[in-house]
Queue: 3 jobs
Job 1
Amino acid sequence: MSINDLINNIVPDYNKYRKSSDVLTGTEAIEILWNIGDSLKEYIEETKVAPHALYRQIYGKSEGKTNVVQKSYITRDFLSRSYRIRNIFVKKSDIKKNLPNLQKFGLFYKAMPFIDNPKYRFTGKEEVNLYKLLNSNKSYTVIMKEVNRLQKTKIGIKNPRDQKIKEMTGDKDIFVSFYNYIYSLLKCSDYKKAQKEIDSIDLEFIKKLSKNTSALALDGLLMTDFEIPMKLNKKWLDFSTLVKRLISKEDSQERRRFRRLIPSHRMTQLGEMLYLLTTENLYKTFRG
């Protein structure tokens, strides 16, 4: 089976899930993902490819590269969920056997650490009670609250996504400070004064920094690695280090978290403002 054959096998179920996810019961959704996971498992066992490498091949597109063809729009996260489900349920019939009345897939997904994570997996009475909860006729909200309570009690994670964002507040401060600094250089309408501030900084470096700052605004935009010059002042050094770290991340999650702190249009604006510093003619076009 070729990678294109695998994608052709997966796409119908993927499209079915995406088009009907709002009306599917949780049980029906898991069955569709199981089908996709089954195709993945067959291919993995046949080719001995690592799952994460296969997910990249299926999605195809790679951030920061323009010479890679995007084979599909099936994300690595979706493929990973499907493969996990296939490994949880050896037979497709086990899904209805264990989850005959699951209301929505989100409930199961939230509870997955208790089902397939060796560190947190429930056994015995805890496992029985978990499936009883997921199959109960309580409201979606009540069940989700109970699963969240279990996560907080058993795993100690209150809200990992918000925690990650909180850890980036220092990055936000660096961005805002540097944005205001560059804006002030342009707002003063004195190119010679601005040049004194950047006199020792290579203009090609500023162009690369400008391009990469703008590229942070949206997934899929071209990013180019760069070297940070020696002897930058603290403002330039802190911001350059931040940008270099963000563009070097192969996974886009951290950049997406950063965009929850800094609006995308501000990144684009800062990228444009940096570029205006590279020549006097461009500098004079600034309209703050």
Note: Confidence is low (pLDDT under 50) at residues 61-70.
Job 2
Amino acid sequence: MTTDTGSFLSLDFSSGTGRTADDEAVEFYDKQLRRVTDEAIIRSIYKHSKNAPEGYVKSIYPGEGS
């Protein structure tokens, strides 16, 4: 993902149940593959994202979604 503040790797994952707060998560990594944990930087990534991820990932569970 490229933003006005730089390039970041976005790891967006879900357990498939979507029932609790820990079932879905997004993590960001910088160019040195260090996890971004600073909330101000994370907010800036969301705010300045030019190519935000869209759509959904094919389910890893048989018979669910596409």
Note: The CA atoms of residues 12 and 36 lie 14 Å apart.
Job 3
Amino acid sequence: MSKEKIGFQTLVKTIGEQFFREHESSAVYSYGEEDQGLFCFLGIDLHPSFELNGLSAKMDDWDIYASCYVTETQVIMDKCRLP
């Protein structure tokens, strides 16, 4: 399984699979290589009708989010704001 998929699945489970499914249309998943490993971010905007956050949004602009680093051997959780 790819690191991108491992990160996504970890973040969905962290936020809550049911909660994610209910808000999937206003969710954004992104990832990129960093020194610590593959950085993965999943953000959910609970008020998308006002202004939908995009990839340029800061972490605290998201109502709900979770982030992690995926290395060759482990997933290291980073910052989260959970429901």
Note: Residues 3-15 form the longest helix (13 residues).
